[in-house]
């Protein structure tokens, strides 16, 4: 979505847009400071090529932020499973509880799959839950600089409660760059 690009650009990030089929070598040839996994349609398990690439990116500890399908791909790369929702989540005004920030965010959503809470590895925490059906809406790795959300913080027009996630991604990149110089 164009607004994702706008919001990342507002963080003064130089963007390189690559196709989902890019392999690890293609990506690393650009020496990225962070990886953004975008939204998209369909069954996340069908994009095995992206899941395999994200597994490789996780090994090198590059900051990763995923939205929607990107959230599901990150979860699958970490060893979790996904499942098809009976009705899916569509539209705006979906309440999501942010565990870390202890607040309720009003979100826009458009997905038919969810991450299976019982399959999430021990080194990954759930950061957000849907208040409508208790499905997983966000995760964060404890030992890697990676996090994701199921909903759309870039929604426009729509609620802006979750725009702080783009700041979080920028801070993660800066922290990772600082750690490299030490």
Order of helices and strands: HHEHEHEEEEEH
Per DSSP E runs of 2 or more residues, the count of β-strands stands at 7
Placed side by side, the strands forming the largest sheet appear as 1-2-7-6-5-3-4
Q: In what range is the share of β-strand residues?
A: 25-35%
N- to C-terminal distance? 36 Å
Structural class: alpha/beta
Largest sheet at a glance? 7 strands, mixed
Unreliable residue runs: none
Average predicted confidence as pLDDT:
92
- Approximate helicity band: 25-40%
Shape: globular
Instruction: Write down the Rg.
Output: 15 Å
Task: Please count the helical segments.
Answer: 5
Summary?
Helix content is 29%, strand content 30%. It is built from 5 helices and 7 strands. The chain has helices at 2-10, 24-28, 48-59, 69-77, 164-181; strands at 35-37, 64-67, 82-98, 103-115, 124-130, 136-141, 146-149.
Which structural traits does this protein have?
182 residues, alpha/beta, 7-stranded mixed β-sheet, 5 helices, 7 strands, 30% strand, globular
Task: Report what the structure shows.
The chain is an alpha/beta fold. Helices cover 29% and strands 30% of the residues. It contains 5 helices and 7 strands. A 7-stranded mixed sheet has the order 1-2-7-6-5-3-4, covered by helices on one side. Helix 3 (48-59) links the parallel strand 1 (35-37) and strand 2 (64-67). Helix 3 packs across helix 4 (69-77). The longest helix has 18 residues, at 164-181. The radius of gyration is 15 Å and the shape is globular. The model has no long low-confidence stretch (mean pLDDT 92).
């Amino acid at each position: 979505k164009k607004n994702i690009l706008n919001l990342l650009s507002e963080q003064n990030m130089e963007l390189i847009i690559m196709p989902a089929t890019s392999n690890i070598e293609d990506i690393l040839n650009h020496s990225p400071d962070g990886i953004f996994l975008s939204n998209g349609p369909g069954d996340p398990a069908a994009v095995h090529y992206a899941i395999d690439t994200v597994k490789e990116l996780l090994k090198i500890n590059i900051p990763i932020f995923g939205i929607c399908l990107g959230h599901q791909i990150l979860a699958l790369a970490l060893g979790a499973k996904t499942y098809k929702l009976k009705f899916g989540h569509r539209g705006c005004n979906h309440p999501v509880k942010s565990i870390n920030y202890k607040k309720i965010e009003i979100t826009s959503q458009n997905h038919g799959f969810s991450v299976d809470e019982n399959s999430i590895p021990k080194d990954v925490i759930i950061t957000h839950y849907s208040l409508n059906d208790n499905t997983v809406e966000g995760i964060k790795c404890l030992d890697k600089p990676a996090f994701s959300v199921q909903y759309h913080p870039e929604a426009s027009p729509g609620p802006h409660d979750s725009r702080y996630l783009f700041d979080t991604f920028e801070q993660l990149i800066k922290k990772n760059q600082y750690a490299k110089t030490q």
